[in-house]
Amino acid sequence: MFLGLRGFPHVQGGVEKHAEQLCPLLVEQGCQVDVIVRSNYQPDDIGSEWQCVKFHGLWAPKHKGLEAIIHTFLGVLFAAIKRPDILHIHAIGPALMVPLARVLGLKVVVTHHGPDYDRQKWGGFARTMLKLGEYVGMRYANARIVISKVIGDMVLNKHHVSSILIPNGVTLPTMPQSMTALQELNLEEGKYVLLVSRLVPEKRHLDLISAFRQSGLHGWKLALVGASDHPDDYVRALQRAVASFPEIVMTGYKSGLGLRELYAHAGMFVLPSSHEGLPIAMLEALSYGLPVIASDIPANLEVGLDADHYFKLGNIDDLAAHLKDFSTQQLSAKQRSEIQKWVAERYNWAEIAAKTMQVYHSI
To answer: CA 131 → CA 38, 70, 170, distances in Å?
Structure first.
């Protein structure tokens, strides 16, 4: 039984994308998978089952600070009634409920998706609660999974416990030939910079906007794909920043064919963020064979691209220079295929599912 995510499929978020890819593969390996979702996020047209994964919708308040913890508390009580063999909790905020789950006799696996207390959106109290969630989650779970070596090293150094490294993955896409989304947004194939992420401060959209304007790429546009679960001052700042620049497009949340079209026909993908666990959006961009530029934070460096793909975090001049340089590089179909092959070999969901099953059997 999975707990700690909003829902899926087609729900925004890295943990949500992780579960969307992983759960059906666990079913294929003979595991019955139930997912406790937040009823106000789960798509209405999905119903109670998808690809043999069963959903249980529980209420959660639409409040940035309380939503996850209240839903997880209710989810643990629900799990105590249903008695799954394994309760798999995702992220360190929900991990605050690990001691309760253990007291109720459940076997718990926690996946650490990243130190969320480093996210800029949280205040002092929330950061303290997230650190406490990490502390009890790592120390009291029956088994711990981390999605990157950086996180695993941090867990060992801070909490003196071992963990199992199982990264995020990619599935090579079927490349769409259609361009409906591009036509609707007035984008030209191969002539736009793409960023796909939630609209939160740690993704540093404003850095990319400044660098894009500074780079002066003739004929290019910037497409910012994503939305905010809780619109705030940051979102309003983004809207003001792009208001008078028609070459910068905020598309809102995209999924399905529209998102696939935007990935498939982009000129490059940029991830300027200051915080990541192991960036699924970056892996997805590579699965489409896109040239990728990313900030030089440890989680992005761990993906393993060549040094010229990284720029110094927060350095607008450096990012603008990378944009100029990459805009002159036209990759051939063979080069894009090599990028796809490289990322598929390193981040394979089928192998990730098999390793996750090993963790379940171990406890």
So the answer is: 23, 17, 29
| pLDDT higher than threshold 90 for residue 256 | yes
Q: CA nearest 324: which of 202, 223, 213?
A: 213
Phi, psi of 357 (to 5 degrees): -60, -35
Query: Residue 89 — φ and ψ, nearest 5°?
Result: -95, 135
Length of the chain: 363
Predicted confidence (pLDDT) per residue in 201-240, tens digit = 999 999 999 999 999 999 999 999 999 987 789 999 999 9
Q: Which amino acid is at 73?
A: F
Which residues have a Cβ under 8 Å from the Cβ of 338 and sit 6 or more positions away? none
Q: Can the peptide bond before residue 176 be classed as cis, meaning omega within 30 degrees of 0? A: no
In angstroms, the CA 110 to CA 123 distance is: 24
| DSSP assigned state of 60 | -
Quick: pLDDT tens for 271-320. 999 999 899 999 999 999 999 999 999 999 999 999 999 999 999 999 99
DSSP summary character for residue 274: S
Structure tokens, 66? 């309380």
Question: pLDDT, tens digit, for every residue of 127-162?
Answer: 999 999 999 999 999 999 999 999 999 999 999 999
Torsional class of 4: left (φ above 0), alpha (ψ -120 to 50), beta (otherwise): left
Among 174, 181, 215, 178, residue whose Cα is nearest residue 196: 181
**Predicted model pTM:** 0.88
Please report where in the chains the tokens 């087609």 appear, as a residue.
10
User: In which element (H, E) is residue 110 found?
Assistant: strand 108-112
